[in-house]
Each structure stands twice: as structure tokens, then as C-alpha cells.
Write a structure and sequence with these properties.
With 203 residues, the protein is of the alpha+beta class. Helices cover 37% and strands 21% of the residues. It contains 9 helices and 7 strands, in the order αααβαααβαββββαβα. Strands 1, 2, 3, 4, 5, 6 and 7 form a 7-stranded antiparallel beta sheet that branches. It is globular, with a radius of gyration of 18 Å.
């Protein structure tokens, strides 16, 4: 149940490997369907979490709210309402419009097809990443905010929620495979050299 999930997470975040290992052995169901289903058994692997300001989107403002969060990674604070004034249309926001806006604000953008290695190397370089989620009748965007190689998860901030959530590495295709894990990389224009790793990755 929720309590066991909470206990296991608290052992993990307190870096108490022996207690966590013991607890997971006693509650074997946690190894099948919880945050720990791909746990590596160690706490020594790389972990990265970007610093950003979480915001919850207003109705249909998933792109403006995601851009507000992403820009905050670069200490650039623009409210989703202000962003929406420039890019929102009745049905939502096209990413092409968002890219024009970002370029006007002094950022470079590049679409790419992501995988775990690519995402993690971009996070290590402090590159902003917007994930494009395709549903059958609509599309949505989320912000990639970190990873944890011990748990084998990506941390993803959905603008519908205050808390970020985890996507296990093994589930990446299942979650974002509708559009081949299409994503948008964003950096201040002076740092566009960071996209070189993307070009290598795409070929």
C-alpha cells in the first residue's frame, strides 16, 4: 500500500541502503510495481535534478506553463499568462509558435527523438527539454527535470500537477512512443553548441 511505498522511499532518500534492501526483501510486491521496480540495488550511480519553479497550468495552458517552468531553469521568470498572450490560440498552442517565442527571448531550440542516454546527457549539460505527449485526440507537453540511475527513472514535471513524477527507463517507449519520443531541446542562444551531442545522437 501507500504506507509501504512511503517507507521505502524514505529509506532511499535517507540513503539507508541496508534498511531499504531489507524492507524490499520483506515486501516483494514493491519490487514489481513501485518506484523500486527497476532498482539497481545501489545508491552510488549518477543522479541529477534541475532547479526550477513548479507551476500548475491554467486551462489549456500546458505549453505556456511548461515554458514558464523551463525558463525558470535559466533564472528567467515569465508568467504563463504573459507567455500565453504571445503564443496561445483558441485551441491551445502549437510548438512551432512556442519556438518562435523562445527565439525572440534569446533561446535556441532543436527538435530531436529522445532516449534515456540522450536525455540524461542533456540534463547533465543543463539543457532544457520539453517532452511532447501525443494522445489519440490531443497533445500535451511536459518538462524533463531530472534522472536517477539508481532507480532507473526520469523525473518529469507535468504542468497539470504540482509534484513531478517518475517514468521508468523501461517505460519510456510505452509513455512517449506514439511520436517516437519527440522532444524539444532549449538553451540560451550562446550555448547552442550543446546541441552538437544531439546531432551525433540522431544519426
Amino acid at each position: 500500500g501507500l504506507f509501504e511505498d512511503y517507507m521505502a522511499e524514505s529509506y532511499y532518500y535517507e540513503q539507508d541502503l541496508s534498511e531499504l534492501t531489507r524492507f524490499l526483501a520483506e515486501h516483494s510486491h514493491l519490487s514489481k510495481q513501485s518506484l523500486f521496480k527497476e532498482f539497481s540495488g545501489t545508491m552510488n550511480l549518477p543522479v541529477k535534478m534541475l532547479t526550477y519553479k513548479p507551476v500548475v497550468q491554467k486551462y489549456n495552458f500546458c505549453v505556456p506553463a511548461s515554458l514558464e517552468m523551463l525558463l525558470s531553469q535559466f533564472n528567467h521568470y515569465i508568467h504563463q499568462d504573459v507567455i500565453a498572450d504571445s503564443i496561445f490560440s483558441v485551441s491551445g498552442t502549437k510548438l512551432s509558435k512556442a519556438i518562435e517565442y523562445l527565439e525572440e527571448q534569446g533561446y535556441a531550440c532543436q527538435f530531436f527523438y529522445g532516449d534515456v542516454d540522450c536525455f540524461n546527457s542533456l540534463l547533465d549539460m543543463q539543457v532544457g527539454v520539453i517532452l511532447n505527449v501525443d494522445y489519440p485526440m490531443s497533445s500535451h507537453v511536459q518538462v524533463l527535470v531530472g534522472y536517477d540511475d539508481n532507480l532507473r527513472v526520469l523525473h518529469v514535471q507535468d504542468p497539470n500537477f504540482r509534484e513531478y513524477h517518475q517514468i521508468h527507463y523501461a517505460d519510456l517507449e510505452k509513455e512517449y512512443g506514439n511520436n517516437q519520443v519527440l522532444a524539444l531541446a532549449i538553451v540560451p542562444s550562446a550555448e547552442r553548441g550543446k546541441f552538437i551531442s544531439l546531432d551525433r545522437h540522431q544519426h
